[in-house]
């Protein structure tokens, strides 16, 4: 595996971006960006992020900070997760009455057949 080869060639190197302080900064920047995205959801998205995520220009500053604070693989992961959650929410919020649990007829709605 490539990662194992890299790790064995640099056994004493500490990757600062995975330490607690850096992860906290990444999470804070991520939350700020997605909060902006929700707050500005009524505006037309004009900017393109990873995995096809679109966002309004008003969130560009928080996006830049998010990308700067996190590993690129994490940014893609969080973008995919956000898109997946929005897609599921959209399906659940759809006004189509056929979605959701079916209401089955209750036994009392049937008349008993006369026995002969």
Question: What does the secondary structure layout of this molecule look like, with pairings?
Answer:
Layout: H1 2-9, H2 20-39, E1 47-48, E2 54-55, H3 60-69, H4 72-93
Antiparallel strand pairs: 1-2
Pfam families: COX6B (PF02297)
Keywords: Disulfide bond, Mitochondrion
Protein name: Cytochrome c oxidase assembly factor 6
Account of the protein in words:
With 116 residues, the protein is mostly helical. It starts with a helix and ends in a 23-residue tail after the last helix. It has helices spanning 2-9, 20-39, 60-69, 72-93, and strands spanning 47-48, 54-55. It has a domain at 19-94. 14% of the residues are buried. Residues 93-116 are annotated as: Disordered.
Q: In brief, what are we looking at here?
A:
The chain has helices at 2-9, 20-39, 60-69, 72-93; strands at 47-48, 54-55.
Structural features:
mainly alpha, elongated, 52% helix, 3% strand, disordered N terminus, 4 helices, 116 residues, two-stranded antiparallel ribbon
């Amino acid at each position: 595996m490539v990662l194992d080869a890299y790790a064995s060639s640099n056994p004493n190197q500490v990757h600062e971006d995975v330490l607690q302080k850096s992860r906290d900064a990444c999470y804070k920047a991520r939350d700020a960006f997605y909060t902006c995205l929700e707050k500005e959801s009524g505006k037309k998205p004009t900017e393109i992020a990873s995995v096809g995520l679109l966002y309004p220009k008003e969130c560009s500053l928080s996006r830049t900070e998010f990308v700067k604070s996190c590993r690129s693989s994490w940014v893609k992961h969080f973008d995919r997760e956000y898109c997946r959650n929005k897609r599921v929410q959209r399906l659940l919020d759809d006004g189509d009455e056929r979605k959701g649990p079916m209401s089955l007829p209750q036994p009392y709605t049937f008349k008993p057949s006369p026995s002969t």
